[in-house]
Design a protein that fits this description.
The complex is a heterodimer of chains A (245) and B (417). By secondary structure, chain A is of the alpha/beta class. Chain A contains 11 helices and 9 strands. In chain A, the strands form 2 sheets. Chain A has a 5-stranded parallel sheet, sandwiched between helices. Chain A has a 4-stranded antiparallel sheet with strand order 2-1-4-5, with helices on one face. In chain A, α6 crosses α8 and α8 runs parallel beside α9. The longest helix of chain A has 18 residues. Chain A is globular and about 55 Å long. The C terminus of chain A is likely disordered. With 417 residues, chain B is of the alpha+beta class. Chain B has 2 domains: 173 residues, no CATH class; 216 residues, no CATH class. Helices cover 53% and strands 17% of the residues of chain B. In chain B, 42% of the residues are buried. About 1% of the residues of chain B have low confidence. The chains are: A alpha/beta (245), B alpha+beta (417). Chains A and B meet through α1, α2 and α4 of A and α1, α11 and α12 of B.
Chain lengths: 245, 417
């Protein structure tokens, strides 16, 4: 699968409006990600970024057009299969509050394996058990597994929390990692360090990275930079669609 | 999922504990109300077995039942000794137990009666009275005490006691001249017998030798020896318990006593009077039950509000769960598991509280009212109550769960707040 040249994400002629009859907040003619690509998607707040992410993650369906993720047209998936599809193929990192406060660090990292047998089996492919793989990912994210494994997430710094969130997104090597402003709660020094870690681990997992941020300063490290305003042909003013997010 | 639900609840333990407590208290209340209701009925029913008719001065059936058997309230009038002899001589009648009430000792009632009491009185499943120590009264100044009296006042056979007039805790006048001696202690029965001091009818008369018109005669009082030589034939008793030779004659005998010309008397069938009593008490029982059910509903509403209020703070949690592949159905189930855990926690804790309450309360009820409330495994009614609470808890939990389902469907991966 990894060798084919099909893009991992492909959006074609999609239009999305919150309600029937309203003007679409998103109208994208063409947007695709090749396998292994690291793409920076720039969008100011309220530009419809989160809506786009919800579309790619199969939470929302566009009224028009088609979205294909890992060769699977999302529109053809019944609703009950979409959540399964998401956990099988996509690792998500949010801006903040990624972790469940009542689970330990290790339990948070392994969360997606509870819902996806595919992720779980891939996590153990290298002959490690789930706990060993968790430790491996934590140390890859420069976190000391012995110290942190059983800690409550509330005891971690924001930077540590974000790295745990990346470990969770990476476990079981999903083909697509989506990071939604993961660095906005970090200071500029740790930002670059975080990005470096993210890149190297995404690379070793062989995943594709879609990194969404309003901070254009980060764009230089990526293979490609796309401005959402350039591809979105929607005529809705950004501040209005921002309200609807 | 259960693990996640449990850990999530543990993380919010103060609110979770309050919800559990609210349910626990309501469960404990409803169980205890039901328990006391049933045990009180049992206790009352157990007190009179084998007695066919109760006879007293004409008043209400319930009143007669209450003062003669349960020693609650007091008689308005007595039965003259002539009537007692007349009734005793009726051919259908097997035995007669005379009861003479109105005196007390340290808050316990003194009951004047005859040997027939030990011979014929039955309680529970037709059990006769038994002695743990000593024998029946023989002398005028002998007394047989119930097990509670012995336990509470730490009396033993051979002790001397002083009996007071009146039924209050503090007797108005104590008959100091006529000390009684304890001749026997009865085995526990779980009935008002345990709280009575039994003396002979002559003993009752002896106590009142120095009493004329409601006041003691001034002076030294009569000595016990002098009293023994007196004619102590009682002039009246408070009530009679009657056993018939054949149950078939019960209505005829009842009518005969009720239409007795020399004196206005009332004969009642204990079972019928008990039914009448339940009819009266039933209203209060239903009221209590309604209140208990309301409290249970309040507990469940609290559970719902705890879960609903938590939902807004937990939208991030739901979004995270959704991002790692949880379906809205999972979120629904998660909330259902939470409410189930809370409800079951409440039920278990409520049962525990109920048992502690019963254990603590039974002593008080026994000492105060002679009501026996025993610890017992949940009966079918209790199990029905518990199952209904559990089902109601599940239903109450569905509402926040449905709300969470809708929210997680609408919110998707966006983290509102």
């Amino acid at each position: 699968m990894k060798t084919d040249n099909q893009p991992i994400v492909q959006l074609r002629d999609i239009q999305f409006a919150w309600h029937r009859g309203l003007d679409p907040v998103l109208a994208i003619k063409e947007f695709s990600l090749s396998r292994g690509e690291h793409v920076f998607l720039k969008g100011s707040s309220g530009s419809g970024k989160t809506t786009l992410l919800n579309l790619i993650a199969a939470v929302l369906l566009p009224q028009k057009g088609s979205i294909t993720i890992a060769n699977q047209p999302l529109a053809e998936l019944p609703r009950s299969k979409r959540d399964q599809f998401r956990v099988d193929h996509i690792g998500l990192v949010f801006q903040q509050f990624n972790l469940l406060p009542f689970l330990s660090v290790a339990e948070n990292v392994q969360l997606s394996c509870r819902f996806s047998a595919l992720r779980k089996s891939r996590a153990c492919e290298a002959g490690l058990n789930l706990d060993q793989e968790t430790d491996r990912l934590l140390s890859a994210m420069k976190l000391a597994p012995d110290e942190i494994r059983n800690r409550a997430t509330s005891e971690l710094s924001v930077g540590q929390q974000q790295r745990v969130a990346v470990a969770r997104a990476l476990i079981g090597r999903p083909p697509l990692i989506i990071a939604d402003e993961p660095t906005s709660s970090l200071d500029s020094d740790s930002r670059q360090a975080f990005l470096d870690l993210l890149f190297s681990e995404v690379e070793s997992a062989g995943s594709t990275l879609l990194f969404v941020s309003h901070d254009a300063a980060l764009a230089s490290s990526f293979d490609r930079c796309v401005d959402l305003q350039d591809i979105n042909q929607s005529i809705i003013p950004t501040d209005l669609s921002g309200e609807l997010q | 999922m259960i693990g996640i639900a449990w850990k999530s609840l543990r993380n919010r333990w103060p609110t979770a504990l309050l919800a559990v407590l609210a349910i626990a208290m309501s469960v404990a209340l409803i169980l205890t109300v039901e328990k006391i209701r049933r045990d009180a009925r049992n206790s009352f029913t157990q007190t009179v077995s084998g007695t066919d008719l109760i006879v007293g001065a004409r008043s209400g059936a319930v009143q007669l039942l209450l003062y003669s058997v349960f020693r609650i309230g007091s008689a308005t009038n007595n039965i003259s000794w002539e009537s007692v002899e007349e009734i005793s001589s009726r051919r259908a009648i097997d035995w007669v137990i005379p009861l003479s009430l109105g005196d007390s000792h340290a808050g316990f009632r003194v009951l004047g009666t005859s040997d027939a009491y030990f011979e014929h009185y039955r309680f529970g499943a037709k059990r006769a009275l038994a002695f743990t120590e000593g024998v029946r009264f023989d002398d005028v100044f002998d007394a047989v005490i119930g097990s509670e009296v012995a336990a509470q006042l730490k009396y033993q056979v051979g002790d001397n006691i002083v009996v007071g007039h009146g039924t209050g805790n503090v007797a108005l006048v104590e008959h100091e001249q006529q000390p009684f001696k304890i001749s026997g202690i009865l085995a526990p029965t779980g009935t008002p017998v345990d709280r009575a001091i039994h003396v002979s009818l002559q003993g009752i008369e002896a106590m009142h030798v120095d009493w004329r018109n409601g006041a003691t005669v001034k002076g030294e009082g009569t000595s016990a020896e002098a009293i023994r030589d007196m004619d102590l034939q009682p002039t009246a008793v408070t009530a009679l318990l009657i056993g018939l030779k054949s149950k078939g004659t019960v209505f005829r005998e009842q009518r005969a006593i009720n239409t007795y010309r020399a004196e206005p008397l009332l004969a009642i069938l204990p079972g019928v009077a008990l039914q009448e009593l339940w009819g009266l008490v039933g209203v209060a029982e239903i009221a209590l039950m309604i209140v208990s059910v309301m409290v249970v509903i309040a507990g469940l509403v609290n559970l719902m509000s705890v879960l609903l209020a938590g939902l807004n703070e937990r939208r991030r949690e739901m979004a995270v769960l959704r991002s790692v592949g949880a379906r809205p159905e999972h979120v629904f189930v998660l909330l259902c598991i939470e409410s189930t855990l809370l409800t079951f926690g409440g039920i278990v804790m409520g049962l525990l509280m109920h048992y502690i309450l019963t254990a603590a309360g039974s002593l008080f009820l026994m000492q105060r009212f002679g009501l026996s409330v025993q610890l017992s495994l949940p009966q079918s009614t209790e199990i029905k109550i518990l199952v209904s609470v559990a089902v109601a808890g599940l239903v109450a939990g569905m509402i926040p769960a449905l709300q969470a389902y809708r929210k997680s469907l609408a919110d998707g991966l966006s983290q509102k707040l």
